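Practice problem 4.
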């Protein structure tokens, strides 16, 4: 094991600014679909995926006020949102699939493009879909879109993923907020 030993003699002092995390911000943004209350998120990183997610939320009907200099976003969902997330907004961003769970949970249906945006290679969303099916959703994939229905709402249940998936865990945690029963 390597180690770094610093022999100084001078006291270190000062402050640093910690940047916001894209991977924390994206599921938080998706979860705002669930409420009609005004949401304010601070320390928002100014990166392409966050901007695309904000564009997606605006497309479905969220009122977005992004104060870039302050790294602050205000989101208001006073009206019903569209339950359709188009390819052109998800093609560059894998995290776009995170709107599937909250849209389905809140409105009982969602049509969300299969995601793109991964330079690592193919990372399917089957864990998301199988968990939503276990919660009572019917899922079809047609012409590059996930079509999900849960007319009577989602049902809480025990879900154990066969492998680790942060995105699927986030999506199902958000969806389970409106599920009947314990998840």
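Answer key:
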């Amino acid at each position: 094991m390597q180690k770094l030993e610093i022999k100084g003699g001078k006291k270190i002092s000062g402050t640093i600014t910690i940047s916001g995390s894209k991977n924390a911000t994206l599921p938080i943004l998706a979860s705002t679909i669930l409420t009609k209350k005004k949401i304010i998120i601070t320390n928002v990183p100014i990166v392409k995926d966050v901007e695309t997610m904000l564009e997606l939320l605006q497309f479905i009907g969220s009122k977005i006020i992004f104060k870039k200099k302050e790294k602050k976003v205000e989101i208001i969902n006073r009206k019903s949102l569209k339950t359709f997330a188009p390819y052109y907004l998800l093609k560059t961003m894998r995290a776009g699939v995170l709107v599937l769970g909250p849209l389905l949970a809140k409105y009982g249906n969602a049509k969300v493009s299969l995601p793109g945006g991964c330079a690592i290679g193919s990372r399917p969303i089957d864990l998301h879909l199988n968990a939503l099916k276990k919660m009572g959703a019917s899922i079809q994939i047609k012409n590059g879109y996930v079509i999900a229905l849960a007319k009577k709402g989602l049902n809480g249940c025990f879900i154990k993923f066969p492998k680790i998936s942060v995105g699927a865990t986030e999506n199902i945690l958000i969806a389970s907020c409106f599920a009947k029963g314990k998840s």
